[in-house]
Design a protein that fits this description.
Rossmann fold; five-stranded parallel beta sheet; Serine Threonine Protein Phosphatase 5, Tetratricopeptide repeat; three-stranded antiparallel beta sheet; alpha/beta
């Protein structure tokens, strides 16, 4: 089809040029319906920036990664586990890394599909002035408040894109095809696409391959009927439907698990089919610091395949991806435990206590308590032990459901010896009673009972929590005396935190 030049977006490109020249705002949000050319416009601006010596970084929001904290920034993270603020700082540092005196442009595609933590990273990039941002936004969806505040506060300028007019579409098609459009060809293409460039391109490609759009007497004529619904989804189906089965399999695998490491995808699908899918622009392969990542070429392709995919097939495909992610691959970092656990949970695989528990723990550390609870329950149903029950109780307590947490902690699986797990359960129960349920006497009694007949190392852990109880009860002198009997070097990290909280409170009383 030749080159499809950017057409009808001169004013927008001029505005983006002022952004690169140092405009008063920190970036731009290109908003509009699916297929109007938001991504193309952002890429053109990114190309101009790169020519000027800017360091350009790309981030993509996806449906599959939307439920995973920091899912959109996964390719810029050397580690996928840790404390939320540490992960956020790591993502910001990685995406803005650049040679001295270089400007950084971050292009965020489909900002409306960012998970909350990724949206927070974007907000911090803008508010800190760490990078200039060009974001694309599909209108009609729900957008994180952290993102909407950026243009409402004037830090990002919002540009609403409209579909191309009929004359502009005609100009675009004639430039792309290299010859004028004859007869009613322009009108028919406009009636079916309504200026949506993505679907116009898909339709033209389809009709060229079918030899119904032909060049005769110096002009392009569209001959013969076309079996297509006027809806946008079915127009996408026209293009996607020309691909052979193995290519569609590649697209379907990405539909349930986008983005996917190329090594994992190659273990699941024919490499030639992957190459064919990339040639057809159904998928995109990009280089990340931890390996090549594969995404769907446009969100509408995935949405169309998803709408045609039955529940059982979707679950079977997720199972295949999850098993591939769990297998070891040379040179790959371990799979994100949250992402793996979600795929596993929504597949037809039997529950795996380790997969679900590790995912729940990682989600908890990222402060996604709702997801942590969901995965912890799955781990328990799969037969996980006391640690999963304790994590479930911790999550429930953080969600303010203190009575439910107490119930969980008083009904732990049999056989929990007096060890670190027992200490964790005991101090969590005392914390829940003290802070969530507001019952300090009952909290005190739990620790008092636990201290009876307990070995000295575990007793030290319990005394660290007793210091917090004393501080909360406004007894700073007793906290000071208790400190003399605690060997802080032998405490676990959790107990040191309890002790530090206690001493801090006591110092302020």
């Amino acid at each position: 089809m030749g080159n499809w030049p950017l057409t009808g977006r001169g004013d927008e490109m001029d505005l983006l040029a002022t952004l690169l020249d140092g405009a008063v705002f920190q970036g731009v949000v290109l908003a509009g319906g699916a297929g109007v050319g938001k991504t193309r416009l952002a890429r053109e601006a990114a190309a101009v920036a790169a020519e000027r010596g800017w360091v350009v970084r790309s981030v993509h929001g996806t449906v599959a990664a939307q439920g995973i904290p920091l899912g959109a920034f996964s390719q810029w993270m050397e580690q996928v586990d840790g404390q939320p603020l540490t992960l956020v700082s790591s993502a910001i540092a990685a995406v803005t890394a650049a040679p001295a005196n270089s400007s950084v442009l971050v292009v965020v595609d489909d900002v409306d599909l960012l998970d909350d933590l990724s949206a927070f990273v974007l907000q911090q990039l803008v508010r800190r002035g760490a990078a200039t941002v060009i974001a694309t936004l599909r209108t009609g969806g729900t957008v994180s408040k952290a993102v909407t505040e950026l243009w409402k506060d004037g830090q990002l300028k919002r540009i609403d894109l409209r579909p191309l007019s009929r004359p502009t579409c005609t100009t675009l098609l004639e430039n792309a095809l290299g010859s004028p459009l004859a007869g009613q060809t322009s009108a028919r293409l406009w009636d079916l696409t309504r200026g949506n460039v993505l679907f116009m391109r898909a339709l033209v490609r389809q009709e060229l391959e079918a030899e119904r759009l032909i060049l005769a007497d110096g002009g392009w004529t569209w001959t013969g009927p076309i079996s297509v619904s006027p809806t946008l989804a079915e127009l996408v189906d026209v293009y996607i439907g020309t691909a052979p089965g193995p290519v569609l399999e590649v697209l379907d695998l990405l539909t349930v698990a986008e983005p996917l490491e190329l090594a994992h995808l190659s273990a699941l699908a024919d490499p030639l089919a992957i190459e064919d899918a990339e040639r057809r622009e159904l998928i995109q392969v990009s280089l990340g610091p931890t390996g090549d990542l594969v995404r769907i070429g446009h969100p509408l392709y995935g949405e169309t395949r998803r709408s045609r995919m039955g529940l059982m097939r979707a679950r079977r495909l997720r199972a295949r991806v999850a098993e591939a992610m769990r297998s070891s691959h040379v040179g790959l970092v371990p799979a994100d435990p949250v992402r793996l656990a979600l795929l596993w949970l929504e597949s037809d695989l039997p529950g795996d206590p380790d997969v679900h528990h590790q995912g729940a723990a990682a989600a908890f550390r990222r402060l996604d308590t709702g997801l942590s609870e969901r995965l912890a329950v799955a781990a328990i149903r799969a037969g996980a032990g006391a640690e999963a029950h304790i994590l479930h109780a911790r999550t429930v307590s953080m969600l303010g459901r203190g009575e439910e947490a107490e119930q969980i902690l008083t009904q732990l699986p049999a056989g929990v010896d007096k060890d670190d797990t027992w200490v964790a359960a005991t101090t969590l129960r005392a914390t829940n009673l003290l802070l969530t349920r507001g019952e300090p006497e009952q909290s005190w009694a739990v620790i008092e009972e636990a201290l009876t007949g307990t070995s000295e190392p575990l007793r030290q852990e319990l005394l660290a929590f007793r210091a917090l109880q004393l501080a909360m009860a406004a007894h700073p002198a007793e906290v000071a005396r208790l400190l003399d009997s605690i060997d802080q070097d032998r405490l676990t990290a959790a107990s040191r935190i309890n002790l530090n909280f206690g001493t801090t409170i006591a110092d302020g009383v």
